[in-house]
Amino acid sequence: MEWLSELGRRVAMFFRRGKFRAELEEEMRLHVDLRRQREQERGLREDEAGTAARVRFGNATVLKEKSQAAWGWTWLESLAQDTVYAVRAMLRSPGITAMALLSLALGIGANTAIFSLIDAILLRSLPVRDPGLLFILGDVRAAGISDEFARNDLYAYPVYRQIQKQNQVFTDTAAMFSMNNDVYGYVGGRREQEPMQVQLVSGTYFETLGVKAMLGRVFSDRDDDSEGNHPVAVVSYSWWNRRMGRDPDVLSQTIRIDKTIYSIVGVAPREFFGTKVGDAPDIWIPLSMSAAVPPHWGGYRDYTAESLYIFGRLKPGVTIEEASTNINVVFQQIFHQLLPTFPEGPHQGDNAKILQHRRVPLSPMAKGISGLRRASSQPLHILMAVASLVLLIACANIANLLLARSTARARELAVRQALGAGRLRIVRQLLTESLVLALAGGAMGAASAPYLSRLLLRMVSAGHEFAPVDVSLNTQLLLFALGVTVSTAILFGTVPAVRATRLELTDALKDGRGASTGAARSPLAKALVISQVALALVLLVGSALFLRTLVNLYNVDSGFRKENVLLFSLDESSAGYKPDDSRLPGLHREVQERVSAMPGIVAASYSSWTFGEGSWNCKVFVQGFDNDKTIDVKHNIVGKDYFAVMGIPIVAGRGFVPEDSAASKIRGVIVSRQMAKTMFPAGSPIGRHYGLGNQKSDGQFAVIGVAEDVKFDSLDEPAEDHTIDYYPVDPGAQYFRDFEVRYSGDRDAIASGVQKTIHAIDRNLPITRVETLDQRLADSLSGQRVMAQLCSFFGLLAVFLSSVGIYGLMSYLVARRTNEIGVRMALGARPAHVLGLVMREILALVTAGVAIGIPATLEGERLVTSLLYGLEPTDPSSLLGAMVLLIALSTLAGYLPARRASRVEPATALRCE
Amino acid sequence: MNRDEIPPGTLYLLILKTLARFGQLHGYEIAESIQQTSDDVLQVEEGSLYPALQRMLIRGWVTAKWGVTAGNRRARYYQLTAAGRRQLERELSDFERVMGAIARVIQTA
User: Fold this and answer.
1) Are A709 and A648 in contact (CB under 8 A)?
2) Residue A779, Cβ neighbours under 10 Å: how many?
3) What is the DSSP string of A179-210?
4) In chain B, what residues touch A56 (CB-CB under 8 Å)?
5) Do A30 and B27 touch (CB under 8 A)?
6) CA angle, A147 as apex, A146 and A150 as ends, to 5°?
7) What CA–CA distance (Å, rounded) separates A295 from A182?
8) C-alpha–C-alpha distance, residues A565 and A602, integer Å
9) Is the per-residue pLDDT at B13 higher than 50?
10) CA distances (Å), origin A739, targets A28, A224, A523, A637, A815
11) pLDDT beyond 60 at A513
12) For A482-496, A605-619, A879-893, B47-61, which range has the lowest pLDDT when averaged over its residues?
């Protein structure tokens, strides 16, 4: 506490330091006066007494300074002085300052923006109680519904209940559906349907996380204890804000989804977005209602409907190893009991074998679960590296500027040192100047960061919507920006500052303002330019690689004729159709027939999937095919005109005809060329039979045709992924989420016409999305596109900055050598010769930079290989192109000062001395 | 008259002790009384009292307030605080330890 009151005294005195000086002076004057009186009393003359008193007192000025320095605020005053001086120095050369500020702002802004995403997606913990104690079963890669025996990542509801009851390591255990339900519902008495994202969770979900309601209550285990009779909902803060205008009366409101009316019992806290980063549900509903929420997944009692993630909170004192052991014991017990009843695959005893080897890994859930994290981690890190390199290049530029300026100021600094300014004092002043520059640039950067973050968010958000990730400026981010700023200031400020004070004073003073051969050689400045060129090469090659990847992906053959196709996404479940609704086939038939009859429609069809929506896949069973090597096949149920609409050629056999949809024991199916090749390598696949993995029949499906391969989920998927089979529409009821048409004529008119026709048949059937196939394909590349855009932007910025660096350095060197050049020309050197002289120097710098850059580039290419498409990891043409561009631009940047040098008037140059 | 510089590091001790004896003094009085008490042996560079007094103010060993001298001029009077008294004890015992040690070294020689 002692130091605290001391600090208080220091601070208090700082604010009355004017008075302090006056008082100190008065006190000292009194002292000297009294002493003089005393000496006079002892018989000295008045002037002698005065001298004696002053001698005995000592150097009053120094003593005053010492007294003041004791209070420790002189540094504050000199800081203020330095700052004012720095600002003045910056304003004196506005062009250079603007350049430096701009590059700093861009560099720091980009770094901050990228960090904001890294922070939000990769680093930030869930806003819940003790997130470090939360663990989830499995590796959380899969999402969906599966019926494979003893999966260790997705679980059935009854299994969740058993694990919850039997484990001894979690204080609370919770489950959540592995997907969100996209539904349409009615809020309160409103008559318009609204889209909403529903997350089905166990009653223990919020308690396990330790999240309390902001209003009302969260769920308890009782909201989940019996199927179908707990119509309650907790809504997210953001939804409450967006859709209800933060109505304080929210707890007396209801939401109707399909036929069920849910009472809103609580609002989640503002910071709680759920447990999946980048996927924020609007509404949470207990899993006990899962059969009621479209698309009616159900599975409350079904041991084979594996669709949930299970997570728990560790008991205090339990280690993760103990937890893992216990969970695995419980898992084995549960599935051992299920063995006799769980459906077997094609071979009896497979399940027992699977169970023997199955282990359940526990994964930390502190940061939530996120596919977004997996997908965006590498691009974000690469961008961060790229932005840091750009910032480094900017720093090198500024260091060079300051270096040049401090050399130009050598005389001033030497004079000051000669007058007794401490070396440290001058270093401090130069560092203050750098810091002021950096802080100004940093402030601009931090201000621009949020805009850049939005752009980046576009990159990591698939398709056309922003992932709900919070990238707003926060304290942590500002601290990061400040840290980057200060480090840049130190980076570019220290070297010039230290160098400026290491002058031989006499040399500098003698030197005048003319040529200083010693400083003109500037090996440090050259080293900076060389490293700039090297870094710029790395970035330029990087951007070339990402650009070419994008171009390759644009040009990749999707297998579709992508022009003139409109895709409509429908949501039958939200319109009140049950999965087995007898009205569904009629609805589909009517829509298909009436739309097909519209003018401008070439063909129209349903399908359960179109490009980029995920897939339903399972293993198939073919007689004669080695079933230990079964392959996953993607299944698509399609209307008879699907191939015509999407422009997929039938390469063997025939397409579907209406009769294929009739009920029969053996169904005709069409397989993709890749599937035909893999499954039926010998002979024609037409007429061959196969069955779905878990059905021990070999004759359920008969191949009637082979379709050309198409991309299913993404444009960069490899050919092995094109194992697809197409089933004809069933006579029974089913949902189709996709309806697509091939049209001719005006797209917009067709789009609205089709929607009108559909709504004329069922006014309530939500059409959730309308887009062209072309657009869908292009949207699937949004990540790669933004990556390529940003890398190109940074790459060009790097080249620009290093050109500026070369220009600045050469201008400076030429200016310093005006005298020498003048002499040369006076002695008969021709302008071309001088030009050559300077250009050689530039080329030497650039070549050195490129030579250093090449190995760095090759190393960098290895790191990004997995993000490239259709390119060799070491792509020579990208490297060559980048080299040519870099050399051309930097030569151009150097040409201007070189030409200036060649036009030096010998007379002027000599007068310069 | 033979005058010695005060030994380094003892200035605080001298000021503290002087203030302890006389209560409130201003700068000149402190210098005078050190000199007189030491029978004119110890000579302070008088001005150096002031930075020392500032440091002692910062550390809270003394407080200062303005008063009027006998000659009717404004002067700053310094006074010991409780912390100052404790510091005096410390410095005294340090000093005695060192002096004792030096004395022993000299006697054995």
Assistant:
1) no
2) 16
3) S-EEEEEEETT--S-EEEEEEEE-TTHHHHHT
4) 45-46
5) yes
6) 100
7) 8
8) 10
9) yes
10) 96, 36, 68, 12, 71
11) no
12) A482-496
Whether B51 sits inside 8 A of A31 (CB atoms) is no
Question: Whole-angstrom Cα distance, residue A465 to residue A461?
Answer: 6
C-alpha A174/C-alpha A163 separation (Å) is 10
Gap between the terminal Cα atoms of chain A: 63
Q: Which residues of B touch A68 (CB under 8 A)?
A: 54
Give every CB contact of residue A364 below 8 A, 6+ residues apart in sequence. Answer: A132, A134, A135, A136
The A residues from 135 to 154 touching B (CB cutoff 8 Å) are: none
Number of helices and strands (H, E) in chain B?
4, 5
Can you tell me the ipTM of this complex? 0.89
- Could you identify the residue written with the tokens 């002058």? A503
Q: Which of A26, A63, A70 sits opposite B55 (nearest CB)?
A: A70
Whether the per-residue pLDDT at A516 is higher than 50: the answer is no
Q: Which amino acid is at A265?
A: V
Would you call A56 an interface residue with chain B, using a CB distance cutoff of 8 Å?
A: yes
pLDDT band at A645 (very low <50, low <70, confident <90, very high): very high
Distance from CA of A62 to the nearest CA of B (A): 10
What are the structure tokens assigned to A6, written together?
A: 């001391």
Rounded distance between C-alpha atoms, residue A438 and residue A492, angstroms = 9
Mean pLDDT, chain A, rounded, equals 84
Distance from CA of A8 to the nearest CA of B (A): 9
pLDDT in tens, A455-486: 777 766 655 456 667 767 677 777 888 888 88
Residues B58, A56: C-beta atoms closer than 8 Å = no
Strand pairing class (A632-638; A724-728): parallel
- Would the CB atoms of A30 and B50 count as touching at under 8 Å? no
Under 8 Å CB-to-CB from A373, ≥6 apart: which residues?
A: A121, A122, A277, A278, A367
* A448 backbone φψ class: left, alpha, beta (φ>0; ψ -120 to 50): alpha
Question: Do you know the residue count of chain B?
Answer: 109
Angle between helices A423-460 and A410-418 (to 10 degrees): 140
What would the pLDDT profile of A145-169 be if each residue is shown by its tens digit? 888 888 888 999 999 999 999 999 9
Cross-chain residue pair A67–B50, CB shorter than 8 Å: yes
With CA atoms as reference, the chain A residue closest to B78 would be: A27
Residue A603 vs residue A415, higher pLDDT: A603
Strands annotated E in chain B: 4-5, 25-26, 42-43, 62-68, 74-80
Closest by CA to A873, choosing from A886, A882, A862, is A862
Split at pLDDT 50, 70, 90, the class of A264 is very high
For residue A562, pLDDT over 80 is answered with yes
User: How do beta strands B25-26 and B4-5 pair?
Assistant: unpaired
State how far the Cα of A792 lies from the Cα of A549, in Å rounded to an integer. Answer: 12
Tokens of A544: 């070339």
CA distance A291 to A227: 9
Which run of H or E residues covers position A262? strand A260-267
pLDDT at position A496 over 50: yes
pLDDT at A528 over 60: yes
The alpha carbon of residue A88 and the mean position of all alpha carbons in its chain are separated, in whole angstroms, by: 39
Is the per-residue pLDDT at A514 higher than 70?
A: no
| This prediction's pTM | 0.71
Chains A, B: CB contacts within 8 A come to 69
Q: Using a CB-CB distance cutoff of 8 angstroms, which residues of chain B are in contact with residue A34?
A: 28, 71
Give the nearest partner residue to A56 out of B46, B55, B59, using CB atoms.
Answer: B46
Largest CA distance in chain B: 55
Q: Residue A620: is its pLDDT beyond 90? A: no
Whether A24 and chain B come into contact, CB under 8 Å, resolves to yes
